[in-house]
């Protein structure tokens, strides 16, 4: 996902920068009009300045995609940290069991202590938080994609918008259904927000 997103960012990011070719042409026309005392209306400074700014939709698309990209990278980092923490937890358990041969009760107490620390530091919720970041990243990407396609081709925009709307509706339904039907076999990371 991050690779596809960075490929699209490489296409959309240059649109944030001023079009130096159009800006140069406008300035040359203005200079030639001033030097030639032309009767044609001069190029206004505001029209030259407009050439140097990106359109609001380009800014919105890039903002959505960059935030999406950052969220996906944060999710990847969180997944790596969670995996490493899980490995450390297992190593601690195994090391304690082999280093300090003890009764089953002592091992159970150690396991309970480690588990309480997992709950205390909310490590149990880490996969849900990471999934929430990925889901938010995907939806920001979809919104940016729809906005971007609106300016490129209306037919592709409508087809993509329809698919994104259907998927978004299904996602919303899967998020809300556990609130009304217990037990419900499907949920999303955001279901817990609705259940509170």
Write the layout of secondary structure elements.
Elements: H1 2-12, H2 20-36, H3 45-51, H4 56-99, H5 104-120, H6 126-152, H7 154-180, H8 191-195
Helix pairs in contact: 1-4, 2-3, 4-5, 4-6, 6-7
Quick overview:
With 196 residues, this protein is mainly α. 79% of the residues lie in helices and 0% in strands. The protein is built from 8 helices and no strands.
Structural write-up:
Helix 4 packs antiparallel against helix 5 (104-120), helix 4 (56-99) runs antiparallel to helix 6 (126-152) and helix 6 packs antiparallel against helix 7 (154-180). The chain is built from eight helices and no strands. The mean pLDDT is 79. It is elongated. With 196 residues, the protein is mostly helical.
């Amino acid at each position: 996902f991050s690779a596809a997103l960075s490929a699209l960012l490489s296409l959309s990011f240059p649109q944030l920068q001023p079009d130096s070719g159009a800006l140069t042409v406008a300035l040359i026309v203005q200079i030639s009009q001033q030097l030639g005392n032309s009767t044609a209306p001069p190029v206004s400074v505001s029209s030259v300045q407009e050439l140097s700014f990106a359109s609001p939709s380009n800014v919105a698309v890039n903002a959505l995609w960059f935030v999406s990209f950052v969220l996906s990278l944060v999710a990847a980092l969180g997944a790596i940290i969670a995996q490493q923490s899980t490995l450390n937890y297992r190593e601690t358990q195994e090391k304690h069991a082999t280093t300090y041969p003890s009764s089953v009760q002592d091992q159970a107490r150690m396991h309970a202590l480690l588990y309480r620390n997992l709950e205390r530091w909310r490590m149990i919720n880490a996969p849900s938080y990471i999934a929430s970041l990925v889901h938010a990243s995907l939806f920001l990407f979809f919104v940016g994609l729809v906005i971007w396609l609106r300016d490129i081709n209306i037919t592709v925009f409508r087809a993509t918008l329809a698919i994104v709307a259907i998927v978004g509706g299904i996602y919303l339904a899967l998020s809300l259904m556990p609130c009304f039907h217990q037990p419900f076999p499907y949920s999303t990371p955001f279901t817990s927000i609705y259940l509170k």
